[in-house]
Amino acid sequence: MEGIDRRLRALVAESPSIFLFHAEGGRIGFESKPGADPIHLQRAGLYRAFIERALRDFDVPARGSFAIGVHDRSHSRYDVPVFEYQKQRGASTMLLPDVDLLAMDFLGGADFVDPVSFADKRDEAIFVGSTTGGIITADTVRTLGHARLRAAMYFKDKPGICFELPAIVQCDSPETEAMVAALGLGDRRREWAEQLSCKYLLSIDGNGANCSRVALALHSNGVLVKYNSPWQLFYFHGLEAWRHYLPVRQDADVVAIVAQARDAVERDAAISMEAGRFARDHLSEAACGRYVAAVMRHYFAWFGSA
């Protein structure tokens, strides 16, 4: 593409969370961004190391520049090729694995292995997380105009469903934070090991797709129950509703799933097995490395330097 380096550089200059990377001689580097968010800088470093290793392990010839957006949400459509780890359905962004999941060993790490068999799980659903999903104002709290707040309030009196938000974040003021706390939506964090005693593991969007919870649920012996989402991760196109997870469009669907658990044992056991197979095939560090190598091979074939 004519002037790709110049156009990438212009985009990177405009965005505090898009980094410009360079590949040459088997090495990957990225340009510094003065004043960059430390989290963004850390992610850029993790991507540099992971991509360099993938290119080396799979012998991918790479010479040229590429850009990665390390923000939680894709901010807009771009007129140049940009990599991100999530995007809205239909966007042209190219997707990479969420490097934080790899760094924290969420993809098959020993600390996240499910010790509870499907048969031994309780017929209950659970979500424990934070109030991410946009800035929360006093009006947001009063109207429950926030997906996670709405769901948490709906499920407060529903048997067999635990939906808690002990981490109150993204409020516009201390007063708003106090309003959320007064709703009584949970006051302690629950380790993943504790949540695994439940059969149904809920996923609902926060700042984009629920990256860690979906991956952990697919790796578990339980069943992923996934709210409909406009956000896409690199492997979502391979997930099939009713084969790898139970789809949810509204809160009442979760109540129905739990109520019908005893009559759906065979269905849910099959979904759990298929999800586990999918996770082993596509959500390991080795599988992510293969994917990244394939994507970068195509990218440099089109946009690499001669």
TrEMBL record:
One example GO MF annotation: transferase activity
Domain Glycosyl transferase CAP10 span(s) in chain numbering: 54-300
Signal peptide: none
SMART domains: CAP10
Record flagged with keyword Glycoprotein: no
Keywords: Transferase
Pfam families: Glyco_transf_90 (PF05686)
PANTHER family reported for this sequence: KDEL LYS-ASP-GLU-LEU CONTAINING - RELATED (PTHR12203), PROTEIN O-GLUCOSYLTRANSFERASE 1 (PTHR12203:SF35)
The protein, known as: Glycosyl transferase CAP10 domain-containing protein
Source species of the chain: Rhizorhabdus wittichii
